[in-house]
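Subject: two folds for Thursday's group meeting

Dear M.,

Sorry for the delay on this. The cluster queue was jammed most of the week, so I only got both jobs back this morning. I'm pasting them in the order they finished. Each block is the input sequence followed by the predicted structure tokens. Could you check whether the formatting survives your parser before we put anything on slides? The first protein is the one we discussed after the seminar.
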Amino acid sequence: MGLAVGTIVVTHLLVIAGSQSDPCQPHGETNVLTGECWGAGGEGGGEGGGGGGNCFSCFSGKECTTFNSSADCLVDASRNSFLLWQDYFEKGGGFPSMVDLPSSWAMPYQAADAGGVVPPLDIAIRAVHRIAGNVDPDSGQLMVCTGARGCALAVLYGMNQVYGKAAGMPLQVFARAPFFALYPLWVPLASTGLPTDAVWNASADPLATTTVEILGSPNNPDGAPLVPVVKNKSHVLCDHVYNWGWNHYSPVDLGCDVSIFSISKATGHCGSRVGWAFIKDPRVFAAASMYNKFTAGGVSVEGQARAYTVLQRVVETNGSFFGVARGILESRWDQLDSVLPKCIASGVFTAFNKQHRGPLLWLTSPQAKDAPAILAAAGILGEEGVNFGGSAFNARLNLCVGPSDWSLVLARLDKLCGSPAHVVWDAVDRVDLASVRERSSMSRFMA
């Protein structure tokens, strides 16, 4: 029996979906499994701190209406949670709530194509890329993975098997700083157990035949549009998860031999854990697909069904979502335009990535002060720049937090940068930086 759009049945529980009013908004959302309020990130929030838990940062209570105004409550802008479009989807946005999946559907292990993609999703992915113009969807074989990082691990494994063995020595993997915090961790996780396995080498020679470049473009954390410095295109892994029309820069097809994307950054549906890669070398594709099947056994059919539902709607509306999403992100930068110049003028921060206007704010502090400590003094949890190959004088802030958290971030930045210098530095000196680092230590495992 089909369900009306706007309802989801989990076992015997009828709960709220996007087309109905959510009593937990705007400072939380309804958990469709329990019917209770919850937040983002899933680490004890509301009552005691700034994390997820039952509500969004600094809110608690049955319907997330009790505000904790204590300076010790940090609003968490360290994780790239992609909730800035939550209101759009909460109001429907022209998107169906979800396909109706009977409990008997797709119970066996799925024998999808070689890349693990169920056929409808394959068609939708290729169609959305034709609209976006960020890759030639006919230029390589398509592999679906558990998130973009699943694809990256599989591809690095494939490169080990093909290029490492052929070279008879370890591939040297690098990325230009600042780079996504997980890049160095991916390399050992893609090990084949052979002496020729790749190693992370931040100072690898781009001209060497054994060098592999991981290229984030637009880059995380600073939003810069980058092009490869390694000339051998087969030795470049292009992380294109931010290469969409909602970003500041128009999407660009760099013609990479490996291009990685995800539903997380395409439309903000991070929890579905669906990523995909276009791979030109059939040998790398075969090895990467085998890695995928051995380590994950494939990608959840429910996740693929949700990705199909969302991407198909993007295709049907000729990509209009990207324009709407860009407008929402740009409005946040318009708000920052009235705050950040004060930060520079007061000397609280010395630079930020204003020219890139992407989903992440990359800040630089005076050399005598740690950037994360400055943010913590204002009641904001950012992520340390050292995690991205930067320094203690850098910090990353996520501009994609939900509307509730964003209001707190903006107000606290404005207060910080409008305060007398001696007040700011006194507050910074009182920050327990070790505690702040512990609070943000898990952020590097998010995007």
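Second protein, same layout:
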Amino acid sequence: LAERCDFDGAMEQFDLAKDIYTTNNGSCICSDVASAISCMGNVQYRRGELDIALSLYSKALYIYRTLGEDVGWSEGNVINVTSTLKIIGMAYSKRTDWESAMKCYEEAMELLVSLNMEKTVEGA
């Protein structure tokens, strides 16, 4: 729907998906919930609503980080965190907040290096 610029429809579908994932997982947080929230951020980013997008990306990042800390830093968890940091950095860049953007990019690289996973994103 977002690809067809039906942003309201896309937001409704991602919100529904988030609710379904939340209901199916009880009070447990899961990467599916974070993914739905991140997709909602993507819709807002495409709309040009950068503050809303950043808020949604931050919520997704919180979930991804919590999962990494609680269940361990699998490659998938690390990629979710670093990819979200990269997207947040892109939103800050679009706002010409270069300092915040660089902090996000640096944090992503530091996480990869600290876990000896910097080769994971080579060429990405």
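Two things I noticed about the second structure. The helical segments are 7-24, 31-47, 50-71, 75-94, 98-114. The CA atoms of residues 69 and 77 lie 9 Å apart.

Cheers,
T.
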